[in-house]
Amino acid sequence: MPTDAFAAAKINLTLHVTGQRADGYHLLDSLVVFAETGDTIRAEAADALSLTITGPQAAALPVSDDNLVLRAARLVGQGRGAAITLEKRLPIASGIGGGSADAAATIHALCRLWDLPLPSQADVLKLGADVPVCLDSRALRMTGVGEVLLPLAHPLPAAWLVLANPGVSQPTPAVFKALERRDHAPMPQQLPRMADAASLAAFLATQRNDLEAPAMRLAPEIAETREALAALPGCLLARMSGSGATCFGLFTEEAAAAGAAALLRARRPGWWVEPARMTG
Ligand code: C5P
Known about the structure:
Radius of gyration: 18 Å
Catalytic activity: 4-CDP-2-C-methyl-D-erythritol + ATP = 4-CDP-2-C-methyl-D-erythritol 2-phosphate + ADP + H(+)
Bound molecules: cytidine-5'-monophosphate
Family: Belongs to the GHMP kinase family. IspE subfamily.
Number of domains: 2
Pathway: Isoprenoid biosynthesis; isopentenyl diphosphate biosynthesis via DXP pathway; isopentenyl diphosphate from 1-deoxy-D-xylulose 5-phosphate: step 3/6
EC number: 2.7.1.148
CATH topology of the largest domain: Ribosomal Protein S5, domain 2
CATH class of the largest domain: Alpha Beta
Keywords: ATP-binding, Isoprene biosynthesis, Kinase, Nucleotide-binding, Transferase
Strand content: 25-35%
Shape: globular
Number of strands: 11
Number of helices: 9
Helix content: 25-40%
Oligomer: single chain
């Protein structure tokens, strides 16, 4: 019996860079949510470990031995075989954690296939700073370099997102390197209770993604993407996720998000545009 796991897009509603460790990794304070759109992983019993990539973004991701899916499979399996299929729908290197989510989904699928416990958080972190939060796949406050995951005191309200990527791949290390300051203030210690998407947007407007400015210097299309989202009817707030280039727009209603996404696709036929429910 194959096992399937969903690799949801990870969205940083905020991303504050609060410091830097001696090893170069940055200390973050980030409100992370997930979107009901993403890749899928299917794992089937096999003698050898293999990876097949299908789906609309497959051409952008040639299979290589250091693919995060294979690295995650080796971590879990320690030499066991499995035939893994990745259906790649999220754009590559786009700030919404596609590779990290694929690694996390691989861990879930293979632990079920082989009836194994989940690996330790320290081992998961070795795959990438975003893999622990993707393994949890629910709204969390992410601190440390990504490994300190704090549950939210109050659940986030229902909301819809429109994700947009202008077709720019943005390597994360270059964006961190281009930061002018690494000592930005964290979010408030207590996040407010937010009753609806409008109050979530009002809170987010007082917070930041500190990687936006350096990312936009490296790729000016990102500013254009955020502005195009912000100009859509019903958009409460628009911001870049992660190190970009994907930006999100926040909406109250499904119909408004769907209508806005259709409008943006018509205006920017070359962009990747996807409406999705925000999962809290
Ligand atoms: O851990 P991951 O492979 O996702 O990180 C990619 C790169 O992003 C790292 O090599 C590092 O340059 C940068 N990074 C960072 N601080 C973090 C996470 C990532 O400097 N907390």
